[in-house]
Amino acid sequence: MKATYREALNQALREEMRRDDRVFLIGEDVAYYQGAFKVSKGFLEEFGSRRVVDTPITELGFTGLAIGAAMAGLRPVVEVMTFNFAILAMDQIVNNAAKIRYMSGGQLSVPIVIRGPGSAAHQLAAQHSQSLEAWFCHVPGLKVVAPATPHDAKGLIKSAIRDENPVIFIEAQLLYPMQGEIGDGDYTIPLGVAEVKRPGTDVTLIAYSKMLLVALEAAEKLAQEGIQAEVVDPRTLRPLDLTTLAASAKKTGKVVVVEEGWPFAGLGAQIAESLYRQVFDYLDGPIVRVTGRDAPMPYARDLEDAAIPDADQVVAAAHQVLYRT
Amino acid sequence: MASRVIMPKLTDSMEEGVVVKWRKAEGERVESGDVLAEIETDKAVMDLEAFASGTLRKILVPEGTTVPSGTLIGVIGESDEDIRGILAGAQPSAARPITPRPSPAAVASPEEDKRASPRVRTLAREHGIDLKAVKGSGPGGRIIERDLEPFLTKKEQPTVREVPLSQMRKAIVRMTTQSKAPVPHFYVTIEVEMAEGLRVIEESKKALPSSPISINHLLIAAAARALRQHQGLNASFAGETIRLFSSIDIGIAVALEDGLIVPVLRDCGSKTLAQIAEAERALVARARGRDLSPEEYTGATFLISNLGKFDVESFIAVILPPAAAALAVGSVREVPVVRDGRVEVGHRMMLTLSCDHRVIDGAVAAQFLQTFKQALERARDL
Question: CB count, 10 Å around CB of B343?
Answer without folding.
Answer: 9
